[in-house]
Amino acid sequence: MNILITGFDPFGGESVNPSWLAAERLDGSRIDGHTLVAGRLPTEFGRALETLRALVERHNPCLVIAVGQAGGRDRISLERVAINIDDARIPDNAGRQPIDAPIDPDGEAAYFSGLPIKAMLHALQQAGIPAEVSNSAGTFVCNHVFYGLMTLCRSRPGLRGGFIHIPYLPGQAVAHPGKASMALDDIVRALTLCVQVALQTGQDLKIAAGTEC
Amino acid sequence: MNILITGFDPFGGESVNPSWLAAERLDGSRIDGHTLVAGRLPTEFGRALETLRALVERHNPCLVIAVGQAGGRDRISLERVAINIDDARIPDNAGRQPIDAPIDPDGEAAYFSGLPIKAMLHALQQAGIPAEVSNSAGTFVCNHVFYGLMTLCRSRPGLRGGFIHIPYLPGQAVAHPGKASMALDDIVRALTLCVQVALQTGQDLKIAAGTEC
Amino acid sequence: MNILITGFDPFGGESVNPSWLAAERLDGSRIDGHTLVAGRLPTEFGRALETLRALVERHNPCLVIAVGQAGGRDRISLERVAINIDDARIPDNAGRQPIDAPIDPDGEAAYFSGLPIKAMLHALQQAGIPAEVSNSAGTFVCNHVFYGLMTLCRSRPGLRGGFIHIPYLPGQAVAHPGKASMALDDIVRALTLCVQVALQTGQDLKIAAGTEC
Amino acid sequence: MNILITGFDPFGGESVNPSWLAAERLDGSRIDGHTLVAGRLPTEFGRALETLRALVERHNPCLVIAVGQAGGRDRISLERVAINIDDARIPDNAGRQPIDAPIDPDGEAAYFSGLPIKAMLHALQQAGIPAEVSNSAGTFVCNHVFYGLMTLCRSRPGLRGGFIHIPYLPGQAVAHPGKASMALDDIVRALTLCVQVALQTGQDLKIAAGTEC
Q1: ipTM of the predicted assembly exceeds 0.90
Q2: Among A9, C22, C28, D5, which is 20 to 30 Å from A60 by CA?
Q3: Tens digits of residue pLDDT in A193-208
Q4: Of D88, D99, D211, the CB nearest to C138
Q5: Which residue of B has its CA nearest to C73?
Q6: pTM, 2 dp
Q7: CB B210 to CB A89 under 8 A?
Q8: Active site annotated at which positions (chains A, B, C, D) (predicted)?
Q9: D12 touching C, CB under 8 A?
């Protein structure tokens, strides 16, 4: 069986996107009898989701982990929930900037991740990798893809999926005083662990990882 | 017509909760022909919502704005979405600490705020009050009340509602190095403005206030 | 006897500088038998210090508190030490941008504040105003004035002085997402308290207010 | 000729100190004809400096770079200035907690680093490693050692020295939500570069790296 790991094109003035660099590094590797396939998504509303759907059609994965850059976050962010709205602070790579537009006019306000985010959190922390559960994937193309992926999972029995945000690479953080970063090796190790946990976990762990606000 | 403004009991080791101090200051004031009624909610899962429902029964408001303390945030946070999950990092005031429990097993994953948060954002910023749209109200009692309030609004035609997070007061921030605060006068002025905007706004403004992550 | 409180002109794209607005509010007020005189300094290397020296000549104060805006800080910052270097990240209001130039080629590397910063910290916190001791006043015009002031104090027996940084006003923070602010009323109250403490304190308190880094 | 790189014992509840782990990794390596010697300092006021002086006596280095952990900083911090004060927020590893005590009663208020911190900043950023000039090394044992080292350099012609703060390791940041980290490989690479730049640089670069506050 295939596992699809997607990353994005660079956006917002960056020359690289760590999500694609990490996905690319995992392409072709094997985990617990599964093959990882890397997919590259344009950072564009609409077209990112079309590309994702085509990748799912072509590779028929049992698991999709979409990965995105969260510039400024200091640890691996396991996203809990995708919301049904596009609200772009900056234009996407095609110059479009939707404001308060639903991603799916017939969809629910949100869908929860299909990944065992608490078990992943536990495994990452045990491995010495800083991680957190996040309650917002933003309102840009990352959340757009996350919401679309969860819609796709609902229509394809046997498909599980979710979204993981990752920090800037050190080389990117050079230009962003005050912002954290994470080495690509650690990001790749984190994503590998997350795939393993997803494959091995039925019922997610019940460990507190909430926030007051 | 009545407008209900709720605040919470202190929690997490604090001796005051600015949300209740602000609501109390607004109690009995009149805005555009409406009377503000302040309600105090216990910071307890379950009982907070029962108290909210009883207040709505008693006062039959056309508008409910629930307010909560967001310790560490630096501006008025207009919450966009409530999610259907309780995940308590710390126990509530009754000692309960639910983990990954749905608030309403029959509810959707989330509900959007019924407030014109973009028009409110615009009005607050014009008035010189720092404000933001927030995409997560957390997973503690604030989000719990927000989700329950939006459920209530769906069952009571004519009732609109939403949630606003506010910073620590200066006196609280004394004990929290590195955390921002806002003067109570400014918080009260902000909430007054928000009520006025809610009363005067039909269709919300379309202004960008999203985040990439 | 006179007490001199100085503030700066706006800089860095701001239309106001809270340090001058606060100083202006204190002008002419009387504290413990002393009269407060407000002085406005240009945000310019060199000329700011010339203006300060002229104000000291004219008003012959026993105490000088120079105040400056610290955009992004979340509390009253009692500066501990001025260092003998100008290193401007941005040009000053006259377009000058010195890099690694000594303020006084014959001066020591640094001078400590002449204010009882620990007693001030204690008084501010008791009054519910967030405050901290800061170990760096930066390397721009604030530190430049602070260093020049301490040089002046060494040459004028009976003159005490020091520097206090204050946060953005709320109206400024509107344009700075993620940055804290403080109400002007609280800033004025804080500076008044600091003057009182300076007048009443001989030996400073010994309370820990350091940092590991 | 020898180059001395020092790191500290763990403190503040940590089980490792990245400064020692990095120094240890560099022990015995050769850079531009020099041999690196790693020295481990206790995180104790007084005894840390005695240990440093003994190491300098024994190895007679031409260059000393003292390294310390700056928990929460997000990049390599090239320290500009050491101040003549101990002000401990927490007790050191021997239980001592000096408050506002001079490190050297006969010393000046501060000494500037003897390292070419701007050339180092430039080299690190060119190599893709996030770095900054810092204007405060705190008031704990790191600053204590830095100040003592600069005093030592003044009495030993031919000895240059300075201080570099480094972030938490990823494994430490697991337990510190909201705090950044840096991989040990990147820290070691950064320190190696800093040594090379120090050996090759006579006059430091004039590039702006200051702060307004």
Answers
A1: yes
A2: A9
A3: 999 999 999 999 999 9
A4: D211
A5: B178
A6: 0.98
A7: yes
A8: 79, 142, 165
A9: yes
